[in-house]
Amino acid sequence: MRLDGVGRRYGVRGPWVLRDVQLEVPAGALLRIEGTNGSGKSTLLRLLAGIDRPSAGRITGRPRSAYVPERFPAALPFTAVDYLTHLGRIHGLRGPEAGRRGAEWLARFGAAAHARTPLAELSKGTSQKVAVAQALLAEPELLVLDEAWTGLDQGAREVLNRAVAERVADGGTVVFVDHDPQRLAGAADARFRVADGRLLPHEESDPMGDEAPAPGPGVVIEAEGAPGAPLPGGPDGTSAGAPRLPGGTQVVPRPDGTTRLTVPAVHSDAVLRALLTARPPWHIRSVTGAGAGPGAGPGDDAPASAPASNLASAPPPASASTQASEPASAPASTQASEPASASASAPDEAP
C-alpha cells in the first residue's frame, strides 16, 4: 500500500491534522507509529485502515484490512459471539465459520465464558478482548491496532503479541500505536513519528531487517533443511515470496548442516510455523529455552532440550489466558458501530 501526499483535516477551513504524508507499507512488515497525544496518530491509522478518507493526496493498493479502534463501541445490541459473527460476515466469512472463529478467539483471550453476554454488560477489559478478536478472526492482510493492548490483562497481552507475530510471519502487515515503549521492542521493521502534522522516520529506527532482539526469555530452535534449501524468509537466501522471520531472529549455520535460530519466546510459534510450512518443510530437531533472552545459548540457564520430531505441520495457537480482565483506561466509545472495515480495492483520492 502507498500513501502519496496524503493530508487530512476536519472541515473545509479546519486545521490540517496530517499534511503531505508519504509512506510505503510493505507486506510482511511490522510498523510502529509514535507521537504525542493529539499529534494525529489515530487519524493516520484510520486512513490506513480505510475507516477515514484523505482530504488531500492519494492512497492506493490497500489490502484486505481490519482495525482495532482506540475506543470500542460496547453499547451495541449484540452478545459477544453474535457481534464477532456479524463482523466476520462483513469480512467475507460465512456465518458458521465466523461464529466458530469468533468463539476460538474468545477462548484464546480467556473470555469464552462471556460468549453469550451482551456487550453492554461486559467489563471494559473483556470488551477490549472482543474488539481485538473481531480484527483477528478474518486473518487480515493489514492489521491496524490503535492502543489495542490497553485494558487487557497480562495473559491477553501476551496472546495479542503472539497474534501479531503470527500475522507478520504469514505475510501480513501490522501497523500499531501503543503507549508502552517496550511493546514489541526490537521486533518492528520501522518506526515513525507523527509531529506537527507530518510523518517522520523515527531517529532511532533500525533499518528494515536489522532489528535488535526483543528483551525477555528466548527460545533456541535447532532445525535442518533439505540440501540447498534456503531458510524461509531468512537473511541467507530468502525464499521467493516468503515473509521475513519475525522478532530479530538470530541465525547461525552449524558445521553439521543444521541451523540454530535464536528468537524471543513471543515470536517462537511464528518462526516454527514458517519453518514447518516452508516448501520443502524444515525438520525441527529441538526447541530449547534460552533463559535470559535471544542472545543466550542453550547452556545459559536453559531447561533440557525438548525433541520436536512430533510437532504437527503448524504449531498450535497460544494457550488462552484465564486471568481476569483489567479495567481499561479508555473513555467511552465515539466510534462508528462497526470498527472493522473490509478493504476497498479502488484508490482513495480526495475530491
Automatic annotation (TrEMBL):
It comes from the Bacteria. Residues 1-221 form the ABC transporter domain. SUPFAM superfamilies: P-loop containing nucleoside triphosphate hydrolases. SMART domains: AAA. GO terms for molecular function: ATP binding. Keywords: ATP-binding, Nucleotide-binding, Transport. Residues 201-258, 286-351 are annotated as: Disordered. InterPro entries: AAA+_ATPase (IPR003593), ABC_transporter-like_ATP-bd (IPR003439), ABC_Transporter_VariousFunc (IPR051782), P-loop_NTPase (IPR027417). Pfam families: ABC_tran (PF00005). Residues 299-351 have a biased composition (Low complexity). This is ABC transporter ATP-binding protein. It comes from Streptomyces mooreae. The lineage of its organism: Bacteria, Bacillati, Actinomycetota, Actinomycetes, Kitasatosporales.
